[in-house]
Every structure is written in structure tokens, then in C-alpha cells.
Design brief:
heterodimer; A: alpha+beta; Ubiquitin-like (UB roll); five-stranded mixed beta sheet; 16% strand; elongated; B: alpha+beta; Uridine Diphospho-n-acetylenolpyruvylglucosamine Reductase, domain 2; Uridine Diphospho-n-acetylenolpyruvylglucosamine Reductase, domain 3; Enolase-like, domain 1; 3 domains; four-stranded antiparallel beta sheet; 14 strands; globular
Chain lengths: 157, 267
């Protein structure tokens, strides 16, 4: 731990203080140090989006932010947002529409979808696609995911 | 992969950042959306990362008479949401949705993009089309560099070791001036196959292509042409785009002409 830096961050409402190696990115920290394994690691260079978490209210790539950079930040993950019920509507629609198969991309998809719901609740199908453009899914072909989000945004059944 | 080990410092003042940046093996960390992938892939292994995100003076968008000054740490998302940019720099507003994806736009910065000088990136071409001035600070003080003199080659700029890009200044677009931003990519937000940032003022066109060479390129012959057909023909003199994995040089030149045709009547 030759370069470790002390950092204090709030993760899903709980304050966490740790000495962190600067080279450790945020998702490794969440997974390995805090056991929050709902945020996934896919490509580790910003392409797949599986590591999406929310920092100070904005979605970010957890692999493209160092954990030490989260010092003083509010970090929210799929675990916290599931427990609070904030994602319940989207989760229900994903389930009913079969918008996941293996589920690897799902936590990040839900965070991206929730971000869209908060910023542009009347988004068109095209806008939904554009907002999810940074999240890979290798199972569904995306149609069911877009259907589920469209249903939540527009109440289409 | 995982990044190699490095030390980390987060200065609170520009002076301190300049001292740290002058150390051997130091690298500036802005939004990190290109630097951290290159650390993770071990394409880059600095000894010290100087995180400049604590420097509030490098943040924000300010309209001062007819100049829009954008701080280097202003994120793509902030530029996309800015009413000042929408009104006075519509070219930049139009470029933002093409820059990567929402989660990346929330952290990536304009200064980082310009200082990296990726030839397929959107902002360097916008800066060139709009004849922007880049503001650079070093231990000896501040200097200003025109975009046309800033981009030197592949990931190569006029920045000297230890200097930090602090802001970029654009002339606000006037009522009779026009601009157009067009990009072709395989997926929304991916690297440009080819793109065009175009600006027209007083009958003069500035056509800045990106993804077309080792840096953003002004198509000067095409810009001087009297009509679309001769402009498209002249593009062959302006651009010799390198082939990529999916597109030959000839295909890219063809696509450059397609973009020119789409932009022509709006300029």
C-alpha cells in the first residue's frame, strides 16, 4: 500500500472510510472492499457499461473513475437503489417483459434507464435507445429492454 | 486488466498543480475517460497522477461580450445542458450527443479532449472550425494558442511539458453565421468513422474534418469552391484519410463527400 490515500465516501447512505490504493478503480473497490458485487466488471475500459454506478446523482462508468476520486462523494449502486425501491417499477417491467437473460448487464441497464426516467420522462423510443447506447447486452437484442423502459415511461402495456 | 501502481495528488490551487505536473513521470488527470482506460490497459504508466478536479477556477462557462470562455474541466454533459452554448455556440451543442455515452459525458471534459488530441474526437474539430483560442498555463505564465496551431499530429499538441490547458475561448456565433455538425459512426457514441464540423461566416467556410487523418483537418480547397460539385471534387486534394479496420481510404473520402453534401445547403 505504498501510495494509499485515505478517503471517506458515502455508499448507499453509509459512510465508509478506507485507505485506498490510487490504482484501484471504483468498481473494484465496491466489489472487493465492500462486497457490493451487483456492479459488474466487463471490459474495464469504458465500452460495455456493465459497471455503471451513480456518483453525486449522475451515472458514471465505475471502471473509469478511481476509487480515491470518490472521496467526499455520494455513491449509489444497484444494491442501494433496489433496497430503497427507487427501481421497483423498472425492475417489474424488466421481469415481465423478459428484458434480461443472463442478467450480467441488467444492474447497469436499470441505472441508465432510471437516469433517463429522471432527466427525460417523456423520452421517445429513439431517445431511449440513444440513452442506452453505452450499455452492451449480448443476450436480448435490446428490443425487450427498450420495450420495458417504454412501458414504464409511457404506461404502455 | 488492472492499472500499474502510481501515486496520486489532488492539488487545491493551480500553482500547486503546476509544481506537481513538472515532476518527472507526472500526468494530469482531468475527466479520466480516456486516461483511465489507457491506465487499465497499461498503455500508460505514470508515476504520479495529478488530479486537477479540485481546481474550481477551471470549471464553468462564461459569456463575456462576444467571447464564450469554457473552463477546461467543464464536462460534456454541462456543455450539452448549457443555454449559453446552445445560443452562442450551436456547433458545440450539436456535437455533444455524438461524444461517447451519457455516463461518460458526465465525467469527460472539454479540456481533456482537446489536450489529448484524439484525431477522431469531436471537440478538436469544433475548435478548429470555430477558430478557437486555447488558454494554456505554465510556470512562466499564461499563453494563448490558436486551434490551428495547437494540434500538431497524432495525440500531439503544442502543450509543453508541465503546462496545463486551463480554458478554451470561442467567438460567439453571430446572427448571420451558420454551422453544421455531422458524424458517421458504427454505433451512437462510438469513435467517428468520419465527421465534419463546419462553420460559415461572411461567405467564408471553415470545414474541419475529424477521423480523416492524424489530427483535425481543415478542407481548404473544398471551402474555396464555388459550388457543391467542385467542392466534392476538391476534397480529394484536402483529405487522404487513413483506412481503418472497416473502411478503406476511398470509402472514407466518399463518406466525407456525403457529409459535405448534407452540410452544404445549411451553410
Amino acid at each position: 500500500m505504498e501510495h494509499a490515500v485515505e478517503a471517506t465516501l458515502t455508499v448507499n447512505g453509509t459512510e465508509v472510510r478506507r485507505r485506498i490504493e490510487p490504482r484501484q478503480h471504483l468498481v473494484d473497490f465496491l466489489r472487493d472492499e465492500l462486497g457490493l458485487t451487483g456492479s459488474h466488471i466487463g471490459c474495464e475500459h469504458g465500452v460495455c457499461g456493465a459497471c455503471t454506478v451513480r456518483v453525486n446523482g449522475e451515472i458514471v462508468r465505475g471502471c473509469l473513475m478511481l476509487a480515491v476520486q470518490a472521496d467526499g462523494c455520494q455513491v449509489e449502486t444497484i444494491e442501494g437503489l433496489s433496497d430503497s425501491g427507487e427501481l421497483a417499477q423498472l425492475q417489474k417491467a424488466f421481469h415481465e417483459r423478459n428484458a434480461l437473460q443472463c442478467g450480467f448487464c441488467t444492474p447497469a441497464m436499470l441505472l441508465a434507464a432510471r437516469d433517463l426516467q429522471l432527466r427525460n420522462p417523456r423520452a421517445s423510443r429513439e431517445e431511449i435507445r440513444a440513452h442506452l447506447s453505452g450499455n452492451y447486452c449480448r443476450c436480448t437484442g435490446y428490443q425487450a429492454i427498450v420495450d420495458a423502459i417504454e412501458e414504464v415511461l409511457h404506461g404502455k402495456g | 486488466m488492472k492499472a500499474a501502481s502510481f501515486a496520486y495528488a489532488k492539488p487545491r490551487a493551480l500553482e500547486e498543480a503546476l509544481d506537481l505536473a513538472a515532476r518527472p513521470g507526472a500526468k494530469i488527470l482531468a475527466g479520466g475517460q480516456s486516461l483511465i482506460p489507457s491506465l487499465n490497459m497499461r498503455l500508460s504508466s505514470p508515476e504520479l497522477l495529478v488530479d486537477i478536479n479540485g481546481l474550481d477556477e477551471l470549471k464553468g462557462i462564461r459569456l463575456d461580450k462576444d467571447v464564450v470562455r469554457i473552463g477546461a474541466l467543464t464536462t460534456h454533459a454541462e456543455i450539452g445542458r448549457s443555454d449559453v452554448v446552445r445560443k452562442h455556440l450551436p456547433l458545440l451543442s450539436a456535437a455533444v450527443p455524438h461524444i461517447a455515452h451519457p455516463a461518460i459525458r458526465n465525467r469527460g471534459t472539454i479540456g481533456g479532449s482537446l489536450a489529448l488530441a484524439d484525431p477522431a474526437a469531436e471537440y478538436p474539430a469544433c475548435a478548429l472550425a470555430l477558430d478557437a483560442t486555447l488558454v494554456v498555463t505554465g510556470k512562466k505564465g499564461e499563453r494563448k494558442i490558436l486551434a490551428a496551431d495547437f494540434f500538431k499530429g497524432l495525440f500531439e499538441t503544442a502543450l509543453k511539458p508541465g503546462e496545463i490547458l486551463t480554458a478554451v475561448q470561442f467567438k460567439a456565433q453571430k446572427m448571420d453565421e451558420k454551422s453544421a455538425f455531422l458524424e458517421i459512426a458504427r454505433r451512437q457514441g462510438d469513435y467517428a468513422t468520419i465527421g465534419l464540423a463546419a462553420f460559415a461566416t461572411n461567405g467564408t467556410k471553415r470545414l474541419a474534418y475529424f477521423g480523416a487523418g492524424d489530427r483535425p483537418i481543415l478542407a481548404q480547397y473544398a471551402a474555396k469552391a464555388k459550388d457543391l460539385e467542385s467542392a466534392k471534387a476538391a476534397l480529394a486534394k484536402d483529405l487522404q484519410p487513413p483506412a481503418d479496420l472497416y473502411h478503406s481510404s476511398a470509402t472514407k473520402l466518399h463518406l466525407a463527400r456525403v457529409l459535405l453534401e448534407r452540410a452544404w445547403n445549411t451553410l
